[in-house]
Design goal:
single chain, alpha+beta, 4-stranded antiparallel β-sheet, 3-stranded antiparallel β-sheet, 6 helices, globular
């Protein structure tokens, strides 16, 4: 079944990650040639061996109408490096490959990420997790949020069951929806 449903901390890898890609965006996107294209972040810079600074794209809205800011990124990163977050799939990536020590908002559109030692691979780790809207993630019951995730992607979930997800295109996402409705089906092993 759909473990974790729409919880972005549980589904960073394929094949399950394909079910979240319509709903969420990451800081960047790995292209077929291996380069990283900006997505929620417009740029990132390694300002010293253990410090990265990410500048976020302004004007991006979550599906609930809230505007993305540095606190959304910082809140989720700090969860992923917490004891509870370390037990999640995305937390294992951020604490493993990312080696993130801390995150803080420099201002509303700038995030500083400190690593545990020099880490030139942080940008590749940072594209492997999605950013949820922090207030919805904290205020909603986790089971409700997991079935009704709030992200910046081009689609919203209309129904999420254990074996199937249906999505509807939304206006105002960072990426544009190319078709009006999507349906994802989780096939049982051996299907």
């Amino acid at each position: 079944g759909a473990r974790g449903f729409g919880d972005p901390s549980q589904w960073p890898e394929s094949p399950f990650g394909y079910f979240l890609w319509p709903v969420y965006d990451s800081l960047g996107q790995i292209m077929p040639d291996g380069t990283i294209k900006p997505l929620l972040a417009t740029s990132w810079k390694n300002v010293d061996p253990e410090t990265w600074v990410y500048t976020l794209r302004s004007g991006v809205k979550f599906s609930n109408g809230e505007t993305v800011d540095a606190n959304d990124v910082v809140d989720f990163l700090n969860f992923l490096i917490s004891d509870d977050g370390k037990r999640t799939s995305a937390g294992q990536i951020i604490n493993g490959q990312g080696r993130v020590a801390s995150a803080r908002a420099i201002n509303s559109m700038t995030v500083e990420i400190k690593t545990k030692g020099p880490n030139p691979l942080l940008p590749k780790a940072a594209v492997r997790f999605w950013i949820p809207e922090r207030k919805a993630r904290k205020d909603m019951d986790p089971a409700d949020f997991n079935k009704n995730p709030v992200g910046t992607g081009p689609y919203v979930v209309t129904k999420w069951d254990a074996g199937e997800v249906t999505y509807a295109a939304r206006e105002g996402g960072l990426r544009s929806a190319t078709i009006k409705n999507l349906r994802g089906v989780i096939l049982p092993d051996g299907a």
